[in-house]
Design a protein that fits this description.
The structure is a homodimer. Chain A is of the alpha+beta class. Chain A contains 14 helices and 11 strands. Chains A, B: Its cofactor is heme b.
Chain lengths: ~450, ~450
């Protein structure tokens, strides 16, 4: 009755939004591919190694030469490489992130945890369970909790990082004797901004694990088992589930929509921008502060942003357009003469265009405020997700954006944009920042490494 | 760059668990189909009308004669039929449920809401937005919030019900002049049980909407827009997101695993059990209390059950087996001589088998306690989901089962089992019931109906 997988049939390619879009009510791109790896050909390019590092895309047990499976539930990614997985990996649909407080004072115990996490993460990233296939020994406590047993790898990725408080305690004291290895960006910490309502217990943390997958249960399984392994060494501080990725990290993906209904992250960095561009904006370089032990890593910048959906939903369409600076339908930047005429999401916004003396993209429009053109070329790679957490006492859905960005140096390419955003972005009236965290994501796991953060912790 | 959907390639069928299972470490059913519509042939049976009612499975815009799309993101189901959708529909991967308190005292306003909900639900169930393709009128407030625009229907279903408090207030007073139409099962209410820790604000409600989909964002979109339509007439009371369906409602689906790692709901009713069996156990009959206006409906029984994962995870495998009464690997009921030898999940548990004078399936094992054999043949159709809601102050993942069952009469086939479970089931030591609700699900929407619950509210 079970066990046979369903045969996927070739689907007819749907027309591209641009092709479909004649403006009539039936022209909507109603059934574009949700997960949107464009085609077997596109996947083939990926398999050819554009992910860089130690071989790129591993489709199940297939080698790098074979095309990647087109069903995201069948995909798996290698854990080892120049960079950690889960950053430029095509963004999956579901997220489970957990921050931990380290409870030991012994660096050797931390190293042991990083070894155990590596073994378990590598097993889970192939769709295996922790300890491999379990359940042979009836008298033993199972090493894996089992809720993903028999489930495919589902594109799962596991990404590990460390926060400021991993290096120094609240009084600035060296916790494990490696405080001098802390990079300056972490030491400086996250600046505070006006209008924040940050919950301390939902912010920060000594360590972080980001698990992404195309099946929420597989992501949950990863976090649960890594949390279990940590018992006695590190304890959960906060967790976050996310759905409906709000960013693409690859040009092979559709741009998704956020909970305000807009395509989000159109102009952010993508995997295909290539090693030079990603090296400039995403990856920590040897020459950067802390780079001798952290090169190949990145900074994971987290902002949990509640979105006031009910207020937003009462705005007229033109108001929404002008706050975002884009058309809601196709995601195209506003143009003259008709702000809805544009159908190409990817054209460069014309920030200089005016109509009757006023900028077509308003001065406080979101895309102008965060544009690289107005931020000295600063770019980030985004990997955010929507969240929904019940409803509040007023009966409003408690929902928003769990924003995640990866940057090479947040002091240059994140904090200045965040400050411009909270002070001048028209969108901020509908947002509330409720949690914040910054972690240095450890470099990729080398072929012979035996723990996450080998260079940092050895 | 966007808009072309990915070509699904035919996947090799993986071996069935029974075929694969030689007990060695490589014999695990590691890549069985997660969503598990077995094959195009299986889908063809569905398309042939086994769902009953007004034509069954509508694959996108395909007619009932065409096979249903094998990609669950491409599926859609007709809203109208003898029964509401979202009950016997093959269980989707994600859930968003919302309960509402009615804020008006005017039955005509409730009727208007039920009309508006029907129009919107019918549009959304085809993958359309509320009001059809929006965003033509820049000066108007968009009728749809837009976050699922361009997303496929993703198997979304929308199911509407009413609670006891819809008919009578806390003092038993008739709210809308239709209290005499309240069926006895609702009037009696849900009995209280020992050991419950029910949160009133997360329990009960006047109305309920269950939205299920294979994309969480599509389910969220449905609830959000229906909530918005209700403003002024009904307000959110509580919401619940769920993932990783813990039940199958069709034999074409794999049995999923719950957060204790066990296959769940193996022996519960399935769509394929047929009209007679479902009529006996699931659908309200004309002759039942309230049946003249509710025939074709059902009772939606909700229990939010927190699972003590950390405690469970410390049990030895044999202890877990004996608490559940099944093998963790294949889900087979325990047998003699070797409790792990069974590989067939679907064989009937041998409740009489003994070994050394003791029952092989222990007296307090979960499957014995809830078995139809020990409950006068009572059966239910289950449609539960896992939930995870951050972590508690002790750093434990706050997670569990959002249990949903559909039954014809909870007094016969749900409350007695629940009482046996809370008083004698070994599993209860690891569970905590934190919320409870009961709704009568309205009959299916007839071809000419203009509102949900037409027979009840006319």
């Amino acid at each position: 009755m079970t066990g046979r997988r369903d045969h996927r049939e070739d689907a007819e390619p749907a027309p591209a939004p641009g092709q479909a879009g004649g403006g009539g009510p039936d022209a909507a791109p109603r059934s574009v591919g949700r997960r949107g790896l464009l085609s077997a050909a596109g996947a083939g390019i990926l398999a050819g190694g554009m992910l860089g590092g130690f071989g790129g895309f591993a489709g199940g047990r297939a080698s790098a030469e074979e095309p990647a499976p087109s069903d995201p539930l069948d995909r798996s990614y290698p854990l080892r490489g120049e960079h950690q997985q889960g950053i430029t990996t095509p963004a999956q649909d579901y997220l489970f992130t957990a921050a931990f407080d380290v409870t030991t004072t012994d660096l050797d115990e931390v190293r042991r945890l990083m070894q155990q996490w590596l073994v378990a993460a590598e097993q889970m990233s192939t769709g295996d369970l922790v300890g491999g296939t379990p359940l042979a020994d009836l008298q033993a406590v199972p090493r894996d909790t089992g809720e993903a047993w028999g489930y495919p790898a589902s594109s799962v990725t596991i990404t590990v990082g460390a926060g400021r408080s991993f290096f120094v305690d609240a009084e600035g004291r060296d916790r494990f004797g490696i405080a001098e290895r802390m990079p300056e960006a972490l030491a400086d910490g996250v600046p505070r901004f006006a209008g924040e309502a940050l919950q301390a217990e939902r912010s920060d943390g000594d360590l972080v694990i980001q698990a992404c997958a195309d099946d929420a249960q597989v992501a949950m399984h990863a976090i649960r088992n890594l949390t279990r392994i940590a018992v006695g060494t590190a304890a959960l501080r906060w967790t976050q589930m996310g759905y409906g990725r709000t960013s693409s990290t690859s040009t092979t993906q559709e741009t998704p929509r956020n909970l305000f209904g807009y395509k989000d992250g159109t102009n952010n960095l993508k995997q295909e921008d290539g090693a030079e561009e990603l090296g400039r904006h995403v990856w920590i370089d040897r020459a950067d502060s802390g780079g001798e032990r952290l090169a190949g890593g990145s900074y994971m910048m987290i902002r949990k942003i509640r979105m006031n959906l009910e207020t937003w939903d009462r705005l007229r369409l033109i108001e929404q357009h002008e706050i975002i600076g884009r058309d809601k339908r196709f995601g195209a930047p506003l143009t003259v003469p008709d702000p809805t005429s544009g159908e190409d999401e990817f054209i460069d916004p014309d920030l200089a265009a005016t109509e009757d003396g006023s900028p077509v993209i308003p001065r406080d429009a979101h895309i102008r405020v965060v544009s690289p053109h107005t931020n000295k070329g600063a770019s980030m790679l985004r990997r955010g997700f929507n969240y929904t957490e019940g409803s509040d006492s007023l009966g409003r859905i408690d929902a928003g954006l769990f924003f995640i960005a990866y940057v090479r140096d947040p002091r240059e390419s994140f904090f200045p944009i965040l400050e411009r955003m909270v002070s001048t972005d028209a969108l901020e009236e509908y947002l509330r920042h409720v949690a914040s965290a910054m972690f240095v994501v450890l470099p990729g796991v080398g072929a012979k490494d035996t723990m996450f953060g080998q260079a940092l912790l050895s």
